[in-house]
Amino acid sequence: MKPHRPPQNREVDPKGLRRNMTRNYSELRAKMRPESRARSELLAAEMLAVMDLAELRKARNISQGELAERLDKGQPAVAKKARLGE
């Protein structure tokens, strides 16, 4: 029995060859209707509002040191805020 493979995002070109169609979010977002884009932005803002500092940092894939630098704070201050759940 073959292992299950999820469907791939592929497109067939005029010569009948398949090619991967990887798209980034900005391309997909540009094709969204304005109402859908506004709803998406609102939902994202709501989700960010309830995330604590550590979750936001991890979601953005940045270190405490990088975050501290961006906030013009020391890394220990960022660590303390994360530890307190702020």
Describe this structure in words.
This protein is mainly alpha-helical and 86 residues long. The chain folds into 2 domains: 21-49; 51-86, no CATH class. Helices cover 56% and strands 7% of the residues. The protein has helices at 25-30, 34-50, 53-59, 64-71, 75-84; strands spanning 10-12, 18-20.
Portion in strands: 5-15%
Overall radius of gyration: 20 Å
Number of helices: 5
How are strands sequenced across the largest beta sheet? Answer: 1-2
Largest β-sheet summary? 2 strands, antiparallel
Distance between the termini: 50 Å
- The structural class is mainly alpha
Share of helical residues: 55-70%
Counted beta strands? 2
| Form type | elongated
Key words describing this protein structure:
mainly alpha, 2 domains, 56% helix
Write the layout of secondary structure elements.
Blueprint: E1 10-12, E2 18-20, H1 25-30, H2 34-50, H3 53-59, H4 64-71, H5 75-84
Helix pairs in contact: 4-5
Write a brief caption for the model.
The chain has 86 residues and is mainly α. 56% of the residues lie in helices and 7% in strands. It has helices at 25-30, 34-50, 53-59, 64-71, 75-84; strands at residues 10-12, 18-20.
